[in-house]
Every structure is written in structure tokens, then in C-alpha cells.
């Protein structure tokens, strides 16, 4: 029986990197099932208030949304074999750093992807990672190698 690897894709939501990984996984027929947080920014921000009611101030509104989203995020990270965390060039992704730390604390295999200019700022995150990449292609090649044993030369 072939193992199906559970891969959680954490990080920035302002580009199509998850779609690129999904297409590459499908094209390469990798034994991978992808999981991700809710990437609809509005729904992610509004979920707590919509479901449980407006709390009256922004702090508690964000707090409620973060906790509801954490149910999904924590469950998927805990069930993942590999966690990929991408730090994009737009915005600071504090949630991505938190996910990376959570995954590392759980002993998950962690792949981090970010531009070279973020290396110093993310040195602790990179230090916890099993691999640090600059491109989606590098992430795919790591997934290919670890899930199939095939080194694509």
C-alpha cells in the first residue's frame, strides 16, 4: 500500500502559490494530499462575529475569529506529515511564523519558503526547518523526493 502524505500549506494568501503546488503535485502524480487554512481573507476575519455575534470591539472580534480559525489550523497541522510555510513579500505574516513554531513544537517536518532577503529576519524559523527554499519549484522537488524517493535531475 502506498503512503499518502498529508501536507499542510501555511502562509501568505496574496499569491497563487498554493495553486502552483497543487498543479505540480497533480502533474507529477505525487502521493500527496494538500490541506490549507481558509484563504478567503474576509471569511477568515469575520467567522467568529458572523457565527457567534458581534462582540462590540475590534480586539474581541479578532480574538473570536482567530480562535475559530485555530480549530481548523491546529487540527490540520497536527494531522500533517509535512508542513510547508511560505513567507511572501507582501505584508508580515505573523500567523505563518506562529504556524511554523507550532509545527516545530509538534516535531513536524517543516519546509519554509521565502525570498532571500528574509533570511536574517527568519533565522529562527529557518533553524527549525528541515529545508529552507526560495521557490515553489524547490518545494515541489523536495515533496517529490521525500514522497517517492525519486531525485529529479
Task: From the structure above, extract its key features.
153 residues; alpha/beta; Rossmann fold; 6 helices; 50% helix
Overall description:
The chain has helices spanning 17-28, 41-52, 58-79, 94-105, 123-128, 136-148, and strands spanning 5-11, 32-35, 82-86, 109-113, 131-133. It is of the alpha/beta class and 153 residues long. The protein has a domain at 5-39 and 79-148: Rossmann fold (3-Layer(aba) Sandwich), CATH 3.40.50. Helix 1 links the parallel strand 1 (5-11) and strand 2 (32-35). The model has no long low-confidence stretch (mean pLDDT 94).
| Number of helices in the DSSP assignment | 6
Shape-level CATH architecture of the domain at 5-39 and 79-148: 3-Layer(aba) Sandwich
Shape: globular
What is the N-to-C order of secondary-structure elements (H for helix, E for strand)? Answer: EHEHHEHEHEH
Strand percentage lies at 15-25%
| Integer-rounded radius of gyration | 16 Å
Secondary structure topology:
Blueprint: E1 5-11, H1 17-28, E2 32-35, H2 41-52, H3 58-79, E3 82-86, H4 94-105, E4 109-113, H5 123-128, E5 131-133, H6 136-148
Helix pairs in contact: 1-6, 2-3
